[in-house]
């Protein structure tokens, strides 16, 4: 069990490092939210039990290394987990690219929206919500990343290929 | 038919909520601060290295739009000769040494107490840093850093201001950030002329310049020293454009920062004057 926790902790740390590298890229490139997209894949591929701990761990780590109100990332990622899991459980019928896109769109809006609320409150500057094109670019960046990861996971595993109704298996 | 997910057990959900609440309250009441500080201290060295690598890409990307090729060619040739002579493995350490020596010389001149800090990362765009105009550095309140302090580079050029502080990390709003405001003076007159404030993460605007002030493009602007804890005479940038309309009360100007804000690795925070003696 401890080995599993250690491996997961190392993986979480590697993803966080990748996200740190992305933040330091020029404006535009830094819109990629690797953490969020990876979390969606963890939820889709490994199920809610492992994903929930990943969401929690990322929320805590991001709160430590970022300067928003402490708990903002925990709350934002917690909401993302809840809503994405709800969509997966009740509406999504397969693991196709379109399903992943839908989940990415929803998660991006929720995560950016919640963090935006905290940021606006912290700086008392609500004009940040006027920047619609910024959110659009972040969405496009995340969708591109989700697409690349879809084909990557598709190549190394069978878990994200489209599954039709007759192929349903409980896992 | 919906996705065939296993049900998420209520006991697990309760466990997660409990852990989440413990993390939040543990932070609020300071119980988890030692753990958080330890994590920050242990993990920041790797983050710094990753950020350094990204900064190299950032600089190459920023330089790709430059058109003065003859000058670039001569600089590149000089760089090539220098690099051939240097041992590649020692280059990073040599550079760091050079920067630190510059800081020592600099602070001999301006006689101000300071704290050196390394850049850990930039800030996530969701935290009002869409324009890549915020840094996280690896020194915090334990080193007596407080919000509002000035951050400079190894040449003594103003980089930005501290916005918020944790135990061993601080957030810096760069000069080009809207949250970095400084009273500035023209270097020629040393008289306070206006308030500098970042514009869209790209450049710096100076507003509230009285119509009676004569300011021209090319003028070097420096800190005025009007604010507490900020010494006068530190270079901010050169004026590139002046907007002067006769029917307005104030003039405004656009300033290009003197410091290269894309490639910061080590910065220095000037401590309050009360800590100097």
From TrEMBL, chain A:
TM segment ranges: 28-46, 75-93, 100-121, 136-156
Protein origin, superkingdom: Bacteria
Protein name per its UniProtKB record: Rod shape-determining protein MreD
Alphabetized UniProt keyword annotations: Membrane, Transmembrane, Transmembrane helix
UniProt source species: Candidatus Falkowbacteria bacterium CG10_big_fil_rev_8_21_14_0_10_37_14
TrEMBL record, chain B:
Span of domain Rod shape-determining protein MreC beta-barrel core: 129-270
Swiss-Prot/TrEMBL keywords: Cell shape
Pfam families reported for this sequence: MreC
A GO biological process held by the record: regulation of cell shape
Keyword Lipid biosynthesis: no
Gene Ontology CC terms: plasma membrane
Family: Belongs to the MreC family.
Role noted for this protein: Involved in formation and maintenance of cell shape.
Record-linked PANTHER family: CELL SHAPE-DETERMINING PROTEIN MREC (PTHR34138:SF1)
NCBIfam families, per database record: mreC
The protein's name: Cell shape-determining protein MreC
Naturally occurring in which organism (per UniProt): Candidatus Falkowbacteria bacterium CG10_big_fil_rev_8_21_14_0_10_37_14
Gene designation: mreC
